[in-house]
alpha-1,2-Mannosidase
Amino acid sequence: MILGILDVHNHRFCLYPAGTETSYLSLTLFMTVLAGLHQVIGRPRLLSLAPIRSAESLPTGSVSHAPLTASCLSEPTTALCLRGIGMGTGCSPQQLFHSLAASLKEGKMPVATLLPFTSTPNRKSVSATSFRLTEKFILLLVFSAFITLCFGAIFFLPDSSKLLSGVFFRSSAVETNTRTGPDGSEPGSAGNDGRVLDKIRKDHDMALLEAKYILQKQPDDIKNDIFSDKNKVPNSSDQNGKKANDLPSVEFHRPPGAIGSEPRDPETRERRAKVKEMMKHAWDSYRRYAWGSNELRPVSKQGHSSNLFGSIKGATIVDALDTLFIMEMSEEFNAATEWVEKNLDFNVNAEVSVFEVNIRFVGGLLSAYYLSGKEVFRQKAVELGEKLLPAFRTSTGIPWALLNLKSGVGRNWPWASGGSSILAEYGTLHLEFMHLSKLSGNQEFAQKVMNIRKVLNRLDKPQGLYPNYLNPNSGQWGQHHVSVGGLGDSFYEYLLKAWLMSDKTDEEGKKMYYDSLQAIETSLIRKSSGGLTYIAEWKGGLLEHKMGHLTCFAGGMIALGADGAPGDKTGHQMELAAEIARTCHESYARTALKLGPEAFRFDGGVEAIATRQNEKYFILRPEVIETYMYMWRFTHDPKYREWGWEAVQALERHCKVEGGYSGVRDVYSSNPSLDDVQQSFFLAETLKYLYLLFSEDDQLPFDHWVFNTEAHPLPVIRKEQTDRPNEVE
Ligand code: DMJ
């Protein structure tokens, strides 16, 4: 079906392919209003409006008159019909318009011949030029009122977001399945009954699982749930009603070590200055070519946007704030602050990755606040945190991976096993959310992340390991894939750091960390025949002898936790950390560029080498340098600074271009192509960890600061402050 609208006066003709009932109804309503007006004002030749239900009966691609049944016209009439739009005839709107225009121009179809189908018999025709200004104005008014009405209905009627989710927004996998069958056909249509029944059965099974899950809860937990549900009403109304600047006042005291002393040793001083120069080049290039965009394309010298942040802008600015601060780049820090004040906007109708937005934006803003004391960062962090809360609206409280910040509709990555949430994503919110509660006085943030632990603690863990996939509705594991690299990594990191950040009061986090590290050692950590210790991945009981660049952060994590290790394991864990650092260094040393591949293997006769083409790239990742930094702090073994310096030289040689720093596609090729992306984590993490590697230990000392997984430093929340939640030391 198509709808035709002809404006004879302006010689304009529009055809609307009407694919859905919604658009049909809207356009019919629109036409009816105009037709009514047409009757009232008595200007019959203004517009020709008619829904054409059987355009196939008209000659293909031609201009013709045809009798029509039009819902807006009281008696049979004739309309100009152009067949082809959306009907698979290959006739474009332009062709049709030109065809009509030519007919009008050549006099084959004088305007007069068009009039009958727009006029009603009892009215006399009036010339086009005599159309009154007031009538035009009324028309415009009615049209705007109608459009406003439509938009109002679309966005504010209770169920309209669901209705539209399949039309304008990407909808959740679950919703898609309920709305249409796998082939996209309407539920209830012929041949679809089986699928609908299947769906009902699946929903029923899911409801049973959820009920079973709730029944497994301890009476105390159920009481707590009821209590927190009761609190939800005032909390959520707080959320909606409270403006960011209604936050409770906080007395700001900067924790020690935001700015450290100059390195004593001249060579280290020079190296640190070199890293600062690299930061300046990366920042200046971003500022010059991509200011306000999420990231920079350093080769093509333009902005780059990743869909991880929806339409939130400025990822590089927020991610770099604390690095600029600790490097004492005050002019740059002030420009970044001004951009945040004036431009950072979370009121976007876009789907974002909850994890990425949390670690980069919430983490970056929190650090900027704790370093500088500027209120704007606290307000923006809390505002964004509140926008992320709807992600936790699942049966278990395990959050969705993706969230539409405007509608609050969440879903999971379509590729994740059985609609699961990802361990490294829902498990990497804890540090930031604890600080959000502290800075806002709203305990909902802390409750949400503490509940994630509860869900995990109730589940059986295969060999004590945490699978990467967990269904947020059933509360059951998905595929049994375990990894300390991608999909799993920062979950383990946040268990340990939650304990450290709580001034070592979070015993639950501590136990979960050391228990899981024990399981990882038993089931995943292996030594190659060449003597390299590596962390493999586990897939349904089978080991894959591969280690990712991402996994290399584990050297630093294990070193950071060694001091608190149970029994007499401190020495053993420090050795393990050092071995992992050595393996990761080898993965760099065995390449042509002296930069590490995305993943390297220990099978098929190779050790610490990437064998697959799609694992040979380097995207300016920080994890290996992060481990060098921790190892340096804990051992002061000069080799870690040397290894860091090797990385600086390789970055300068192979990744630096006139417009910034770029990733490379193959670290084994001496002449690799560039990927043309300067990742925001290069400024947040890689350069920050290099700078700290060449700094004295009094810069961001570990007994006062804990780094989130994007290297944003967050202060330790002192024991004595826990009853004074809004005070920062
Ligand atoms: C960073 O965004 C974070 O470190 C995250 O935890 C995983 N890796 C990237 C950088 O490699």
About this structure: The chain has a mean pLDDT of 79.
